[in-house]
Write a structure and sequence with these properties.
263 residues, alpha/beta, 2-enoyl-CoA Hydratase, Chain A, domain 1, 4-stranded mixed beta sheet, 10 strands, binds ligand LHQ, Enoyl-CoA_hydra/iso
């Protein structure tokens, strides 16, 4: 598959999707949205893919929507931005969140607008020390999208979510870590290697079980305590029927390293 605005490869169970419009800080134009969608379809349909790694090329991770595509000419009719959200951003966020495999986001530089919220739909966010997060929407009269208004209060609390989204100030990677927005900060020069190492290691783990862990944690945000206990029972039932459960226990008992297949 060849793409113009993304780099996409699959190796050792890891699909790597790299946003590749570095001159525009990897902001999303229509073609990039379409290409990301195509790549994610491959990830969804290829059973050999056990981890997705999302990152960006150049000094930015993603500056959100390409605003040159959204400039409204004087006197022109008001645009329906809801259509763009419905067509591209919401499906992207749903897909990242619902993929039944771990999704790692390596934030290599500035992440602004939708680009600051896409990482929050991923499972493990590692940022380069020089990276930053900007809820830039308020600067152009918009509201945070890509599920930012859902994720931010849950991750950092309402007070910080309001400050981030109403002020649109730059949040450093270190501060994002301290606030619980992301998992880890590493030196810029180590980001790519560490993200790939983590992805490769995760790709050898019981993928089906990891997908169920994701599902149960997501559900916990809306479930009551009792509902969650019942969900744990149901998902543990599914996990216990997997090949990898058999292998994990057998390897433990036989004191050897397990060879997980991912199902
Ligand atoms: C850009 C962009 C960009 C185009 C940098 N577009 N070129 C959903 C649905 C429908 C409509 C609207 O939006 C959405 C969701 C959203 O994402 S809304 C929010 C959109 N994003 C922003 O408002 C962020 C805009 N960018 C910035 O504020 C700055 O570029 C940041 C703070 C990210 C980085 O600042 P600097 O490091 O100073 O870089 P720069 O501003 O010089 O940008 C470098 C180049 O990238 C520059 O092009 P040039 O030709 O002058 O070198 C920028 O024009 C271009 N670029 N973001 N979103």
């Amino acid at each position: 598959m060849s793409f113009q605005h993304i780099l996409f490869s699959i190796e050792a169970g890891v699909a790597t999707l790299c946003l590749n419009r570095p001159e525009q800080l990897n902001s999303f134009n229509t073609l990039m949205h379409q290409e990301v969608r195509e790549a994610l379809k491959v990830v969804q349909s290829d059973a050999g893919v056990r981890v997705l790694l999302l990152t960006g090329e150049g000094r930015g991770f993603c500056a959100g929507q390409d605003l040159s595509e959204r400039n409204v000419a004087p006197g022109a009719e008001a645009p329906d931005l809801g259509l763009s959200i419905e067509r591209f951003y919401n499906p992207l966020i749903r897909t990242l969140r619902e993929l039944p495999i771990p999704v790692i986001c390596a934030v290599n530089g500035v992440a602004a607008g939708a680009g600051a919220n896409i990482p929050l739909a991923c499972d493990l966010v590692i940022a380069a020390r020089s990276a930053s997060f900007i809820q830039a929407f308020c600067k152009i009269g918009l509201i945070p999208d890509s599920a930012g208004t859902w994720a931010l209060p849950r991750l950092v609390g309402m007070a910080r979510a309001k400050a981030l989204t109403l002020l649109g100030e730059r949040l450093s990677a270190e501060q994002a870590l301290e606030w619980g927005l992301i998992y880890k900060v590493v030196d810029d020069t180590d980001l790519r290697d560490q993200a790939i190492a983590l992805a490769r290691q995760l790709a050898t783990q019981p993928t089906y079980g990891l997908g169920l862990i994701k599902r149960s944690l997501h559900a916990s945000l809306d479930n009551s305590f009792e509902e969650q206990l019942m969900l744990e029972r149901d998902l543990q039932r599914l996990a216990g029927r997997s090949e990898d459960y058999r292998e994990g226990v057998a390897a433990f008992v036989e004191k050897r390293t397990p060879a997980f297949k991912g199902y």
